[in-house]
Specification:
globular, Rossmann fold, alpha/beta
Length: about 260
């Protein structure tokens, strides 16, 4: 593995850091591997951060027929390809829903822990019909800007704000439409509720996208003895809005021996 300051590029992922503890990161709906960069640079000293580019995002080829199952198979194929023997799976928003299903269907080495950041519920993500229709105008720079502004509570610096817009515009149109029309409404709750992996949820009480009530009513009931960390004064894009605060919480989770399950 290369030095800590270098980024390695695989076919569908980037690797930052070469620490003893490995975390596989699954990005949110509007992002890609680069959305984690600000967080990864705060973890790279003691962690190996594997940042996936899901199909249709970043430079990864889209799936012919997107589905929760096919995305989860892709995640597990990357883990198998890397030959990981011990790792933590971390998903943000859409990536949280996919992380749960990927762990459930993994036939190889399962994650030792799962970290969900402002996760899309394993049930149905509640989005106003007017907002869904607006977001279906893609790719559209003006609508992308509205989406980013509507997701945050903290002002993003110019570099982060620009990246959040551009990563959204780059997403394959068919993949984009699939999540808004089908993916976010696919209910996997019954299929993952017997998942035997320790799960930690980090969310914001002020999230304008995934409300606090949704975490307690649509996420926690389907997980076995989850640990919950509630943050304040942050929006939905926690890895970009508050990477320092998030890194602190992730370091605590990765250090802790988990005997709850």
């Amino acid at each position: 593995m290369k030095t800590k300051s270098e980024v390695q590029f695989g076919r569908n992922y980037e690797i930052i850091g070469n620490g003893k503890k490995t975390i596989v990161f699954i990005h949110y709906f509007g992002g890609d591997a680069g959305s984690w960069h600000w967080l990864a640079k705060r973890l790279k000293k003691n962690h190996t951060c594997i940042l996936l580019n899901l199909p249709g995002f970043g430079e990864t080829r889209p799936l012919p027929r997107p589905s929760i199952f096919e995305f989860s198979k892709f995640i597990n194929s990357c883990i198998d390809e890397l030959g990981l023997k011990e790792y933590i799976l971390c998903g943000h928003s859409m990536g949280g829903k996919l992380a749960l299903y990927a762990a459930k269907i993994m036939e190889g080495v399962k994650p030792i822990k799962i970290i969900l950041i402002a996760p899309s519920p394993p049930t149905v993500e509640n989005m106003a019909e007017q907002e869904r229709v607006r977001m279906l105008k893609h790719p559209n720079a003006e609508e992308a800007m509205k989406t980013v502004k509507g997701a945050i509570q903290r002002k993003l610096g110019k570099k982060k704000f620009t990246y959040a817009i551009e990563s959204q515009i780059r997403i394959d149109e068919n993949t984009w439409d699939w999540w808004l029309n089908e993916g976010m409404q696919n209910n996997i709750a019954e299929r993952i509720k017997d998942l035997e992996v320790s799960t930690h949820i980090i969310f914001s009480k002020n999230d304008p996208v995934i409300a606090q009530d949704a975490i307690y009513s649509e996420v926690l009931p389907y997980l076995k003895k989850p640990a919950v960390i509630a943050l304040g004064k942050i929006g939905h894009l926690i890895p970009m809005e508050a990477p320092r605060k998030l890194a602190k919480q992730i370091k605590r989770i990765t250090k802790k021996r988990d005997s709850r399950l």
